[in-house]
């Protein structure tokens, strides 16, 4: 974890335990296998609507997913497959939701951009840029009022940092000292535009943190150890009453903005440089160098692929939603009749 105000020689945090490192690797491998399958199913016409893959950004979700407690809350953007899996949501209902099947998390009515699992404290993926930051503040405020040792983590992209809700949410979180951690997944590109071309500071999130009395925390979002260390530190601070944190995790999406976008507008040398920093093979090599049995890593990889295969079979065997579900969860009483 690096603060912009720190010396470059600042000591690195201690490495996580061997057990934590294996959990981080397992989480990333499962995410990668799941999203590659989701893309394959899209090419077959089995995934309906749009979707936004997080291929290449797995280390951020994994680091926080391993550090979070079951009672903590997660809010994320429409690029939320990885964050949903990181909270322990089974693959089959996530895959079924992407395919619009009744087994899905929302019985097939939400799709890729609205993944939600209240039992896992995964409080939703939000399609409107920046909309969830203020809602996440509400969850954190609830925890503070109840005196509950819960922390809210809110993930968002670099483009959100130029949305008014970003500044409003940070200001109020700081004023009220809410137990919340804001995490900017800076993959350098908005939909088709580089964030650097429309932002006055070099680091769109960390560079603005001091304006709200927060430390400017910048981390390598492709390093699972770094994301876990930053998550653990910020979560501990919030849980102890230390208030909010803002973390900018530098990362890169391997593909375009959405599944229909080939991403050809990005410079070839930039893409090649970031692909060489792929968080999964990089972390695998680190674990092997640290003495982790390579056979154990192979078993993790095989188990992840088997889990994706099984989830796919279950999702494909599930029928489309029954029409009787169309009005469910629309109004507070579960019906379609407007109550005056």
Helix content: 40-55%
| Spatial separation of the terminal alpha carbons | 53 Å
Q: Can you give the mean pLDDT?
A: 93
Assign the CATH topology of the domain at 2-72 and 128-176 and 185-253 and 268-315. Answer: Rossmann fold
- What shape does the CA trace take? globular
CATH homologous superfamily of the domain at 2-72 and 128-176 and 185-253 and 268-315, by name? Thiamin diphosphate (ThDP)-binding fold, Pyr/PP domains
Instruction: Please state the second-level CATH architecture of the domain at 2-72 and 128-176 and 185-253 and 268-315.
Output: 3-Layer(aba) Sandwich
Query: Which CATH class of the domain at 2-72 and 128-176 and 185-253 and 268-315 is shown?
Result: Alpha Beta
Helical stretch tally: 10
Give the SSE order as H and E letters.
Answer: EHHEHHEHEHEEHEHHH
Which regions are unreliable across 5 or more consecutive residues at pLDDT < 50? 5-10
Taking all Cα atoms into account, the compactness measure Rg is 20 Å
Category from helices, strands and their pairing? alpha/beta
Largest sheet: 7 strands, mixed
Note the beta-strand portion: 5-15%
Quantity of strands, as a count: 7
